[in-house]
Amino acid sequence: MAESSSNPAPPPPADVPAEGGEDAASTSKKAAKKAEAKAKKEAEKARRAAERAQAAGPSGAGAQAEDLATDNYGQETHETKLSPDVVEINLKTLGDEHVGKTVELRAWIQNARMQGAKMAFVELREEGNWTIQGVIAANAEGTISRQMVKYVGGINPESFVVVEATVEKPLEPVKSCKVSNYELHIKKCFVHAAAPAALGLTLAAANRPIANFSDEEPALEEGVEKLTVESAIPAASMLTHLDNIVMHKRAPVQQAIADIRIEVKDLFRSYLKNLGFKEFEPPCLIGAASEGGSNVFRLPYFEKEAFLAQSPQFYKQFEIAGGRKRVFCIAPVFRAENSNTPRHMTEFTGLDLEMEIKRDYTEVLHTLEGVLLHIFRGIKERCAEEVELVRSVYPSEDFLLPEPGKEVRLTFAEGQKLLREEGPEEYHNVSDDEDMSTPQEKALGALIKKKFNTDFYVLDKFPESARPFYAKEDPTNPKVTNAYDFFMRGQEILSGGQRINDPVELEARLRRKGMDPSSQGIKEYVQVFKDAGVPAHGGGGIGLDRVVAWYLNLPSVHLAAYYPRTPKRLLP
Ligand code: ATP
């Protein structure tokens, strides 16, 4: 908050004359002199104030020498009081029934400006982009003084204030605010928590599309901020956003993305619970690298070493082995991959499920397809406003869904054939036995969109070489597995498939993959299937961050995470 020269001043200390005693006479003389000097000073002050009032003219309501409004504004203290009949409101539920009522709003100052000496306008913001215009005008009675108007008009943006006001209908809708049909006529305004005069990142800049996602400091000449053609408001880099995490989070676009993310989790959870799935929590700290490989974070664990879970895969299966038929979990996943791409983070949130297979692994595939379609339809239904808000910053086309009953499921080989026959030149020789590269996947996504008018599809029957040791081979063609990936706008968002539940078959496949069935971590995994009969089962892992990002067609998955973790970024 800017220290205002017209801040209400504490009352001057009372002059208390000394009480009787030996020096009482001289003391009272001194006191009289002091009082005389004080009276002179007061008289001079009053004369100057009268002069000022006269100069301001007869209507100079706020120019009174004495500020009668000091109880109505300033820094909030324990003595700050609002009127007893005040009604607490929030902007989302403000309605005609509030018009004329005295209300309390606790909000951030988004903007404050003076309109002449006696009037000021403020934009007050609750969460997201819920804003309302506040007006304050000096009155003849002096309960709203000029000093008060100046104080309110000078509050630093992003300060948190407590306002008492009457709700009025403006003459014309206030286009700049989300709540456009009402405005607040401010009677009291207290700063609860002041923002500094200069913000590291303004709200307007935080709400612009991010200019640069590099984890490196931009070169000096590039500048952290660059002016774009469409807007005079400078866009900032992801680094600046993360260095100013508070303003990054206050940006309505970020809150809209977060709100969509919350709904996606909720849609996932509620759909599966309705189908009888049980939720569980897998551990993040594990004693052996679950899926092997180099992309595992290691950390000291007392005298030993621990690892951060690369996936809840084994634990989902342990739940099935442990007597559950259908389980799901929502948990962090850690990958020590030095992948500096818009698709990767070192920590992301996995939406995972695992279920018993009764007849055929496509039961799992269809369940996963069902939950994702439910999520996509749910976003459209529940988050229309948030999606619009995100689009105003990051434009995107509607996410196209297949018509019910016309879901697109191609085998990996069919996908490769499509690329060979109709894809770009460089993919005319792709093989059915080799995994796809990311550009290849994107090219296939474009072809599928053109052919089937959908942004969502499944590729099934991945080659054996492209899947981990626990993937079940197709009994009719061991060159491929009962495993699939799901795609949104040509980018992978899910991997899954049937798992091997027979320990003999599992050990054989481990050996074929060049792995030792008796190695630490693997031995214990295989033992689970020896300990008791485990039914056929399968599942899949969905990357929550990618679902949100690709649905909205964001330029990077980092925007969908609350606190993105990348190889170079661990703060905040
Ligand atoms: P990619 O090939 O894109 O690196 P992956 O094959 O390693 O992904 P899986 O191990 O199958 O991915 O993980 C399942 C899902 O988790 C992916 O489909 C994706 O949605 C998400 N995911 C995987 N790795 C990351 C990551 N580093 N950052 C964000 N999400 C990820």
Question: Can you walk through the features of this model?
Answer:
Residues 1-65 are annotated as: Disordered. By secondary structure, the protein is of the alpha+beta class. The protein has two domains: 70-193, OB fold (Dihydrolipoamide Acetyltransferase, E2P) (Beta Barrel), CATH 2.40.50.140; 253-560, 2-Layer Sandwich (BirA Bifunctional Protein, domain 2), CATH 3.30.930.10. Helices cover 30% and strands 23% of the residues. A hairpin with a 5-residue loop joins β4 (119-125) and β5. The radius of gyration is 33 Å and the shape is elongated. Mean pLDDT is 89; it is low at 1-25, 50-64 and 219-230. The protein binds adenosine-5'-triphosphate (ATP). Adenosine-5'-triphosphate binds at residues 335, 337, 343-345, 348, 350, 492-495, 541-543, 545-546, 557.
Protein topology:
Blueprint: H1 24-55, E1 73-75, E2 87-88, E3 102-115, E4 119-125, E5 131-137, H2 146-153, E6 160-168, E7 179-193, H3 203-206, E8 225-226, E9 235-236, H4 238-243, H5 245-250, H6 252-274, E10 278-279, E11 285-286, E12 298-301, E13 304-308, H7 313-321, E14 326-334, E15 347-356, H8 362-382, H9 384-393, E16 409-411, H10 412-422, H11 438-452, E17 456-460, E18 473-474, E19 477-481, E20 483-488, E21 491-499, H12 503-512, H13 522-531, E22 537-543, H14 544-551
Parallel strand pairs: 1-7, 2-3, 5-7, 10-14, 16-17
Antiparallel strand pairs: 3-4, 3-6, 4-5, 6-7, 8-9, 11-13, 12-13, 14-15, 15-22, 17-20, 18-19, 20-21, 21-22
Helix pairs in contact: 6-8, 6-9, 6-14, 10-11
Adenosine-5'-triphosphate (ATP) binds at residues 335, 337, 343-345, 348, 350, 492-495, 541-543, 545-546, 557.
